[in-house]
Amino acid sequence: MNALQIIRDVESHGGKIYLLDGNLKMASKKGIIPPPLLAEVKNHKPEIIHFLSLAMNPEPSKLNAPIKEPRLLGSVVSPAAVAWLQDHRQDLKEAGWPASQLWRRNKSKGIAWSPMWTKSFLKVTLLDSGAIEFEFVDGGKDCINKAYPMPQRPTKKESGK
Fold first, then answer.
1. How far is CA 35 from the centre of its chain?
2. What is the pairing mode between strands 16-20 and 132-138?
3. Domains and CATH numbers, the chain
4. Which of left, alpha, beta for 32 (phi over 0: left; psi -120 to 50: alpha)?
């Protein structure tokens, strides 16, 4: 089992795995996580910390770079977001999604920080139009949200100024 599989398995049992000041933490109701899964978490702790550290790295080009001590953020990228965005990196680029719109963490955060990644029964699709479609259940209702890449302004160099 790899780190993402373990994280997803814990989440499917109603638990959460996250980093706090660089330490691996897990939150769940007592007794809800099966002992064999807890053993998997303990056995794969370094890999899980590494994976979650990647989630806090804003630049996809640095995903293979050595991991620095992660900083505690007000919000953390969902492991599901990291996995999906990594798996679809080339298709997203071709659809017009610059890395800055996916990973940035300033006032208008990128898609990676969207709360939709934590919705129940989430299905994410990259449409032919370039939109990222999120299908999920919220309050017992089926919902669909779409995100579109924003047009890029030409740089001074490109515009000849």
1. 26
2. unpaired
3. 1-55 (1.10.10), 78-161 (no CATH)
4. alpha
Can you tell me which residue has the tokens 């965005």? 85
**What is the per-residue pLDDT across 4-39, written as a single tens digit (0 to 9) for each?**
888 888 888 888 888 777 788 888 888 889 999 999
- The C-alpha atoms of residue 93 and residue 104 are separated, in whole angstroms, by 15
Summarised one tens digit per residue, pLDDT across range 47-79 is 888 877 766 554 444 444 443 333 333 446 777
